[in-house]
Amino acid sequence: LDWLVETVAEGVAQACAALQPCRLGFGHQAVFGLSHNRRVVMRDGTTRCHGSFTDPAALHLEGPIDPELAVIAAVAPDGRRLGALVNFACHPTHAGPDDFITAGWPGAMVCAMQAHGWPVGLFLNGAAGNLHHSNPCGPSLDMEPLGQALAERVEDLASNLDWRDEVKLATRRTTIQLPYRGLSEAELTGQVRGAQRFRPELYARVIPQVVERIRQRGTQPAEIQVHQLDEYALVSIPAEYFAELGLRIKEECHPCHALVVGFANGMVGYVPTREAFQRGGYETTFMATSRMAYESGDLLADAAIALIGEDVTVR
């Protein structure tokens, strides 16, 4: 952990030392076929995470994806490419449960972007709590092809970005207290409707520790940040946030162009929609990674929307 902190601090210092004038370009497009909703509703009305339509009991996908691929790029005054930031919603978990660290498909994407002439590539994941590269409906792309496919989409956008010499900046943040889920016997033992435990022995070992922390804390602090660049706003949510909730923020913030950033400035675990809890599935099953109350997703969205407000510069 010390190495990580020192490395991040060194990166910040290098970035500050390399500050220079630039133009910013903004663009976005819808991309389908690369990210998939991984929750499949079964004929009994429950939902299975990583369900498959090869199962005769599978009925339909539970919800949408967020197809938006957004790019904020920087070039020097002479047109030389400096770097690009990419926002897209999809779990980067090709390695599955294997216990090693990998940059995943975002790393493959950045490498491909560098081959296209972007010296620096940055990735911000979106509201990807229920989105995945694994396709319940058919074949899926491996890590390298997925990263390369997204890099190609970034390159397509690069030729038609909205370039600006000046950008109005603003930043706001707030911390709210989120309630924990009720500690019913059914929740603690995995007996609620649709409960899905991939490693039951892990739940039995960890849940007593989770319950103790919940009783000590009472509520969970969650910081939401908004960083605005003209009408664009990076909205950071400290959770594995469901796509439906991210889409709600985007819709209700119009005419601001919200780009939701998940897994940001902390982690309160999975935050599904209220409706998802009625069907179950891995993401709603009580654990260290899923412990917040049913209304937490809307509380986070409400706070984010209020932060953006009405002071938006639209071009």
Please, could you describe this protein's structure?
With 315 residues, this protein is α+β, with helices and mostly antiparallel strands. It folds into two domains: 1-165, no CATH class; 167-315, no CATH class. Helix content is 30%, strand content 26%. It has helices at residues 2-17, 104-115, 143-158, 185-189, 200-217, 243-252, 274-279, 296-308; strands at 23-30, 36-37, 39-42, 47-49, 58-61, 68-75, 81-88, 121-125, 131-132, 162-164, 169-179, 219-229, 232-236, 240-241, 257-261, 270-271. The protein has a five-stranded mixed β-sheet with strand order 8-7-6-1-10, with helices on one face. The chain is globular and about 65 Å long. 38% of the residues are buried.
Task: Describe the structure using short key phrases.
4-stranded mixed sheet, 315 residues, 5-stranded mixed sheet, 26% strand, 30% helix, alpha+beta, 8 helices, single chain
